[in-house]
């Protein structure tokens, strides 16, 4: 039933949603694991630094965050490394991404690169951003 309903959601509507994440049930071994993950304080520092980088990037404009960029700002601020450009080109072709989806991937990859304190968008940033696209067969 869920898959049937999800298939009714149009592609253009899905293209307007930046991040799609499937959250599977957590296995017992992971729940019982006593190792600690990354502390919230460390994540907070990284997010704050990325937000500050975005504020500085958009100083003098009406923009505040990467999500607000239009095509002109994407061309200006989303500098992609050659390997990342190759991956993106392949993804556009194989996944048949629309123009809107292409721009969403770049904006999200720019944010992922900001969180990694990277000046340019690399292949790992594009790959992660592509993972957050909706899977067409699933909705």
Structure described in brief:
With 139 residues, the protein is mainly α. The protein has helices at residues 2-7, 11-14, 28-32, 40-57, 71-77, 82-94, 99-115, 123-131. It has a domain at 62-139: Helicase, Ruva Protein, domain 3 (Orthogonal Bundle), CATH 1.10.8.
Main attributes?
8 helices; Helicase, Ruva Protein, domain 3; 57% helix; mainly alpha
Write up what this structure looks like:
- With 139 residues, the chain is mostly helical.
- It has a domain at 62-139: Helicase, Ruva Protein, domain 3.
- It has 8 helices and no strands.
- The chain is globular, with a radius of gyration of 17 Å.
- The termini are close together.
- The model has no long low-confidence stretch (mean pLDDT 89).
CATH class division of the domain at 62-139: Mainly Alpha
What composes the largest sheet?
A: none
How far from one another are the termini?
11 Å
Can you count the helices? 8
Q: Kindly state the mean pLDDT as a whole number?
A: 89
CA-atom Rg in angstroms: 17 Å
Write the CATH architecture name of the domain at 62-139.
Answer: Orthogonal Bundle
**Overall form:** globular
Q: What portion of the residues fall into strands of 2 or more residues?
A: under 5%
**CATH topology type of the domain at 62-139:** Helicase, Ruva Protein, domain 3
Low-pLDDT runs of 5+ residues are none
Say how many strands there are: 0
Secondary structure category: mainly alpha
Give the H and E element order.
Answer: HHHHHHHH
Specify the helix fraction band. Answer: 55-70%
């Amino acid at each position: 039933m869920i898959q049937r309903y999800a298939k009714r959601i149009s592609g253009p509507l899905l293209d307007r949603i930046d991040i799609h994440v499937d959250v599977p049930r957590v296995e017992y071994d992971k729940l019982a694991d006593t190792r600690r993950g990354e502390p919230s304080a460390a994540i907070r520092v990284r997010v704050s630094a990325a937000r500050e980088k975005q504020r500085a990037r958009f100083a003098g404009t009406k923009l505040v965050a990467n999500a607000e960029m239009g095509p002109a700002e994407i061309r200006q601020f989303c500098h992609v490394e050659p390997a990342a450009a190759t991956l993106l080109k392949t993804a556009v072709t194989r996944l048949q991404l629309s123009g809107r989806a292409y721009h969403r991937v770049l904006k999200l990859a720019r944010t992922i690169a900001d969180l990694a304190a990277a000046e340019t968008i690399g292949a790992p940033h594009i790959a992660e951003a592509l993972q957050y696209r909706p899977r067409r067969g699933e909705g």
